[in-house]
Fold these 2 entries.
Entry 1:
Amino acid sequence: MPNDRHDLIVIGAGSGGVAAARRAAAHGAKVLIAEADRVGGTCVIRGCVPKKLMMYAAEFARTLHEADGFGWSEVGGRFEMHRWADAKAAEIARLEGVYRKLLADSGVALVAGRAMLNGGGGVRIGDRLCHAPRVLVATGGAPAFDAFAGLDTAMTSNEVLELRRVPPTLLVIGGGYVACEFASILAGLGARVTLAFRDTLPLRGFDADLRRRLAQALERRGVVLAGGVAMRALQRDEHGFELQRTDGSVLRAAAALNATGRRPNTAGMGLESLGVRLDARGAVEVDADSRSSVPGLWAIGDVTHRVNLTPVAIAEGRAFADTEFGRRPTRVDHRTVASAVFTDPPLATVGLTEDDAVARGPVDVYESEFRPMKTAFAGGAERTYMKLVVDGLDERVLGVHMIGADAPEIVQSLAVALTCGATKRDFDRTIAVHPTAAEEFVLMREPVRRHGHAARESAV
Ligand code: NDP
């Protein structure tokens, strides 16, 4: 019987849990991490990483097409998804191995099995009862099925990433990150995709100019946009799927993807019986230091439903470990988190949308829109769009938004400037790197729109 007393027990070996465990171990803590599934969690096993590998596969369709415009002849080919699937499985297995090794090299004990909270720092994993004064819940989330009847008959992002053949027709239900990304990717791979969402545009919450342009870009890729109508039920029969909408219309396809959001994984692990406060979605309620309502129990990542992104979970995990084991109290600033949507073209954003900024005070908006050199040369119609949302009083850049090739890479770098509090003048005095698309962000001279100045001037 091993000595089952630890300084920290982490439940869930996804990106957040692994980061917290390793950082705590680096501070000298004796750490155990429990995982019921594969090591790596949503991001590595059934999310960001395989999704991006599928996105790369889809991008080749356009690259091959564009090659002709650059003088390449007889470029072509056929996508064999089963070959991609095998290569993807091998890569994910390799990455899982890397995660396991990182844990082992950090001295973290990995235990396979579903964890059950016993109270008083006790955690049961299979027939093993372990104890620690600190327990961290990092169990992530899973696809939701409860938006309306029949969604449980559709694939989720988990199954889409396991496809070995491209479905001829696909109904994507939802208009968020997962829906837009897979609609774009599967269309790139050759499926005829219909995107069904209830708002007038996809990606609620993003800047309206990006949303409009994404809708146009998806349509250019052949995705049928079926927006603006609520949904009633999904039915499956031997011919495929039928989505009934509240206006009486019906959408049909051979395959369907349920992308109506995710729910925190909090059921069946004893949280309720310990009295841990959960919110209406079932997420663990935590304070700014990721403390739950029960002493000795913390939670990070998607299970807390704050900002559901891998790097945020990692930052929350490290902040917890530094605070509790490193005598370095650290908090995560959830206000300025950049994110990207890996459609084709991709979009990325950091900071306030134009609408949100306008609601706060005077705002100047700078834009640039152009056909990127590579696309224009190949005869493509696609455009890149960039926007800076600037505080009308102190010239601080409040928001950066872009849709176009390399948007995630470019916005990641500009997120540093935003975090530092850069002003429009700082952007202006930055010399461009030429010829790039990114240089347009430092070459925007005059605002295209000014909001809220008149109201302020008339008040003076
Ligand atoms: P989202 O919350 O982004 O989107 C859920 C979608 O489902 C919304 O469009 C929503 O519509 C729709 N929906 C919900 N209920 C209904 C309903 N009853 N009828 C019709 N539509 C409905 O969830 P995702 O699953 O796409 O992504 C989950 C999280 O994972 C994201 O929030 C993101 O943080 C993360 N993620 C990040 C990625 C990235 O960084 N690239 C990629 C994938 C996921 P409405 O807007 O109208 O409410």
Entry 2:
Amino acid sequence: MDIQQLKDTISHLKKEKNAYILAHNYQLPEIQDVADYVADSLGMAKHALSIQNDLIVVCGVYFMAETVSILNPDKRIIIPDTNAGCPLANFAPVEEVRRWRKQYPDYTFVAYVNSSAEVKAEVDICCTSANAIDIVRRVPNNKIVFLPDKNLGRYVQKHVPEKEIVLWPGFCVVHETADLEAILRTKEAHPRALTMAHPECPEEIQEIADGICSTGQMMDFVAKHPETREFIIVTEWGMVYALQKKFPDRLFLEPSHRMECKNMKRITLQKLHDALVEEKFIVKVADDIREKARQSIDKMLA
Ligand code: 13P
Ligand code: SF4
């Protein structure tokens, strides 16, 4: 089947099975096109609570499907490729988190949602890149362990200087490769452009950005700058498609090399099609872990 035939079949299957397709902003353009809802991690988690359909296909990385499953334990949650993991989440194995908890007994543990369900069950509260500053600020304790992303943690520390934040040494392999020289060259060639960078980018990239935004916040940033015609995007390229689709009259520029999350791009139309036909691969979190992880997610949402 070609792309159009696959898209048509998927939309037919979706109706027939009463399925809902929830996708992240980094998904392939054709996946974003067939999805019912495309958002950042926080948007996906919040939206998951209002979905009525019994079958939800999560087009994103594994922890996103786990989060949807934790929030919807009575629904069937599927992911088209179980190998679509998040290398950042792998930086924090649960045994290591337990070891740190013993080492820092009087600290509040804040976990970025890019972490496994087991880790979410082990910490005090979750956050996403869209609400990390807010969450850390509101936690009553002044001593925080932030995991697993050191760049996001450092960004939070700058905005919440009154707290002591211990950073877990993890990072996103995609954002870590953001090319400072290429961004500076693009800025020089487009002096009126505003630069948006994801907070998973290293500090030197954040320093030259006009906006440090979660992928969802990038949408808001463009909407808040109606006079600006050009934006330099320092994040995974699926976001460039999402922005261009929403704002067709603006220009979104990628600094020379394309930032690609290979795991996000594992989800293809063919795999989505097969997932709908066979209702695979089911994502289910064991009850004891789910209940504890849910508390960390609920605290964040509250
Ligand atoms: P957002 O929550 O900003 O969409 O980020 C998720 C992610 O995986 C970034 O690499
Ligand atoms: Fe994980 Fe980075 Fe891919 Fe986001 S871009 S899913 S943090 S590896």
